[in-house]
Design a protein that fits this description.
Length: 135
């Protein structure tokens, strides 16, 4: 109020800050999936990654959006042109315990690790965008 903001603006800012602070200790994780894998995610109610025989490549981020280069890098992990980018929030500490290289942002997950990764998902999986080749 000292800066001349209205009550509605102050209330919005307080809610925004409360939501951001409630995400302390979490990471956003981005993964490219095929259309059939996305259908399996949808079938799970957007609560888990699909069982797959391939290694999933995940990119961890503290930002809400990826750069063009990051989008290209993660989309190239899927061997189809119709790759779809999904994201979800995980418990940071447990996620870092699960990955091999904690300093890297790119993390491969073998098919047998997907169950462990699913246990870390805090919120519904979101479709971030179609991750077309060459973005």
């Amino acid at each position: 109020m000292l800066y001349g903001y209205e009550d509605l603006q102050n209330d919005w800012w307080e809610e925004y800050r409360r939501n951001r602070l409630s995400q302390f200790g979490t990471l956003l994780v981005y993964v490219s999936v095929t259309p059939s894998e996305l259908a399996a995610v949808e079938f799970s109610g957007f609560r888990s990654l699909p069982a797959t025989s391939r290694t999933l490549t995940a990119l961890s981020s503290s930002d809400e959006d990826l750069t063009k280069d990051e989008r290209k890098q993660i989309s190239e992990a899927v061997a189809v042109d119709e790759a779809i980018l999904i994201r979800f929030r995980v418990k940071a500490r447990a996620f870092l315990d699960l990955v091999a290289e904690t300093q890297s942002r790119i993390h491969p997950f073998r098919s047998d690790q997907i169950k462990d990764l699913n246990n870390l998902i805090l919120e519904k999986i979101e479709v971030a965008s179609a991750a077309a080749r060459g973005c």
